[in-house]
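--- STAGE predict ---
source: upstream dedup step, 1 unique chain passed
mode: sequence only
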Amino acid sequence: MENKKMCVWKRGGYFFIATLLGAGPFSSHVYAGTDHDQFNSVTTELNNDVSQQKSKRITGTVIDDTGLPVIGANVVQKGTTNGIITDVDGHFSLEIPEDATLEISYIGYLTQSIPVGNKSSFQITLREDTQKLDEVVVVGFGTQKKVNLTGAVSSVSSETFEGRSVSNVAQALQGAMPGLNIQQTQGYLDSSPSINIRGVGTIGEGSDGSPLVLIDGMEGDMNRLNPQDIESVSVLKDAAASSIYGSRAPFGVILITTKKGKSGKMSVNYNNSLRWSKSINMPKTADSYTFATYFNEAATNAGRAGHFSPERLQKIKDFMDGKITGGIDPDPSNPSRWADLYDKGYGNTDWIGLIFDETVFSHEHNLSVSGGSEKIQMYASVNYLGQDGYIRLNPENNQRVATNLKVTSKFNDYISLNYNVRFNQIDYEKPTYLTDGLFSNLSRQSWPTLIAYDPNGYLYEYATHALRLRDGGRNTKKTNETTQQLNMVIEPIKGWKIIGDVNYQLYHERVHEDIQKVYNHDVNGEPYHATLGGANSSVSEYNKATKYLNINAYTEYAKELAGHNFKVMAGVQSEQLWQDEIDAYRLGIIVPGTNVINGTSGNDSDGKSVPPTVSGALDKWATAGFFGRLNYDYKGRYLFEANLRYDGTSRYRSDQRWRWFPSVSLGWNMANEEFFSPLSEYISTFKLRGSYGLLGNQNTKVWYPTYLTMPIGSSNSAWLINGNQQNTSSAPGLISMTMGWETVKTANVGFDANALNNRLGVSLEWFTRKTEDMIGPAPEMPVILGTAVPKTNNTSLRTNGWELNVTWRDRLKNGLGYNVAFNLSDARTEILEYPNHTGTVTGYYSGKEMGEIWGFETIGIAKTQEEMDAHLASLPNGGQTTMGNNWAAGDIMYRDLNNDGKIDWGNSTKEDLGDMKVIGNETPRYMFGLNLGLDYKGFDVSVFFQGIMKRDYFTGSSDFWGASSLWSSTFYEQHMDYFRANENHPLGANLNGYYPRPVFDSGKNKHAQTRYLLNAAYIRLKNLSIGYTLPQTWTNKLKLQNLRVYVTGENLWTGTGLTDLFDPETISTDPAGMMKYPLSAVYSFGLSVTY
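--- STAGE serialize ---
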């Protein structure tokens, strides 16, 4: 009885542990095991060959080794989809042929196969699979048992991508694994998130710290993939795991494995997703009267007259009240034209509402076919994604078509051949004037007092870009990529494999842009050329084509000797890339609509001939590497791995071209020790591991940084010969002959544990990564050198961090399955060496922590003139004069930290900081993902949260502050909470306002300071998915294997202390601290049907 109580507690009573753990990322479906159908009803379809055989009904009970019933175990006729799950008492009943074999499986237990024969009743006991010996993860050039890993590797399965209404793979991976840092940059339809592994890798000039992304072993762009083609994703984070790829992977590797066919009956799956997107974190336009009042106040506080006269203010109010119409009057000095909108306009335009739609539609469809025999299997898919953007006046759209065919074949016991071909095409079309500049203009130029449509109903252009957005041309970008991969495996004797890969990729990109003339209409409705935003029409064409060839050849041999397991691998790898670019630009579209280079005249708007601009380039690079790996373990207790790579690159000179990159890792799984046996019933893995490795970084943004070319110019001389400008050339600068590799040294210590029959999993990592010999500032040399001093390898940094991953999954006695997964990571970067000749702390310097925000400590906003005067009197040696002048009520009072009687920056050096200090850090800290899911009787629910627990942010942009200058100010409803002392103010008094009083042409209140240090931490409900899988009795009648319907939501809720002017995910991406194309909350409905 005591054992039974323990077993019940083990299987059904762990919910409180999950609560204490606090969670973790879980998939949009919950499955009990590695099979797709576990934890769900197994769908049934009686095949013709089955129905023709003599069948009978069998019954049985599935129990565990303590005699308790196993609820929700899969009982399936092997090789078919005919099956059932056990009920709350462990019972099952199934119609099955006499010569069939039953297959019984359940999470945490060994799968059993039992011939039916002449038996009609079964009592089946499942045995615990405490080791999960068959669980493997993808690593460099192969796979390894997860239990034997000694490097830092995280992985997710295809479940991560199911039920996600995302437009690319990176969005689905955000928050899914610790240490994989994915940040949304913009909401544009063609934008891709930025990615790094374990924080900042390099600040070297011209260096790239992005991870290497490999798709089925070949470098590729994950965001061009169909997410539903992905079988698994592994992230190699330390040098021991990634060093096998050498200098192409100094900052980690993302390994993506796509799905392949499985032997058995051919199955066809169709699924779709119909989506409605709504923009989030868009600013709210203030009404014209409030806007004008604010601008007048900012001018008055600066000692100037307000821009809006009392008569104009009254006119604005009358227009808003509907007493008058028009919004603009004819220009008295030129009655056929409308007056200047900035000086005379009295409209009330919501420019955000005019330009952007509130809700847009998109849809995705996916069709896949899978199946085959024991000798040959096939997987094929086609995917379509169509998206509409938010621009109302001239809609943008994005379309992706992706196809995939993978054939795996086994010729005989010794040779297998695999072939994969993928094709994808992405077409993105948008208005030419949909750029980051549009959002800047919306903020600072699109005053609500400006009309959008003139009194005759014509869209009117006046620095607002609305007319140009609608009529100013289109930008189209078409890209297509074809990838072919051939893999051969020869196994002449058991344990010895010879593998060869040939990977070839073609990529083509074409960008077309036309700029059209736009036309305003005068008072009489006659069109005229509007030239405020530019007078010329033009066509530009850009084409890029690349060819990429990758060849891998390697061999591996595995041998077991009395508990000693050895595996060795050695191989060679080569990569080559060729790139061809051509760019052309010409003025003067002759016939609008014929927007091609040959349809242009080459003349500007004044009829003057302007030479076209044409450029082109042909580039290539190559790498080669020799690599080897040794794995050893003794009975799964003592683990050892060593990697060695000898890499060469064409990017450096011959004496710098080749480098050795070693790594070594050790592990000890105490759970396999004799002394651990009393705990083995509860803990199956208890592993300590550590690694160290050295890598080089050859990923330069300029392909050949140690070579310079002579600058040449076409018809750009400052002199004329025969009336014509001449071609020019000039001497190139100098370059350091010692310039070479960045080197990356990484150490990692990890701990892994699995307990309670593998329901609980814990992984903890600590790491340090040092990047040396980065390209930094040039050393100082005498001016007699006569040219710029060349830069060289003279900078280093170190990143320290840790990662935690906790998972829990179980099924209760009533059949309710649930899982919880939580990951948390942190990383901090310190600059160890950096030449800083001036010693200023606001730039890079030795000892600086990356992300430091230097600023002043704020006392507060002075609520009265007397309070400000008293504050200034406490600063007898200069007050706040260095920061600005004309201090009054509503202005900022800064604290005198160094007690010198004045507020200033000093020299902004460590020796003389003045009153500055580190007030915050903009580095994202404590990034987390939390996934919760459950399933019950066909219903499944998953909830995924993602966020950052600590991050500071400061911006001096007018989008945040509001008043800057007359022509560079912004005012949204979010800015209305500003200091106002006058009780008779049109907007009312506001002594406790968040913002100081507005002042034009002064930055005195906007210096970096503690009061306006923003808390950019956030938690976001990234995904909510609710689905229902129809019972098998229903799907059988429809001749289907499976039918599931679901609803999902993305970005449904955000908790943050950040102003809603900005989105916490995009706040620091360029243009930093400014309004951007919004991210979306997505609501979708879909179905998945398998035939």
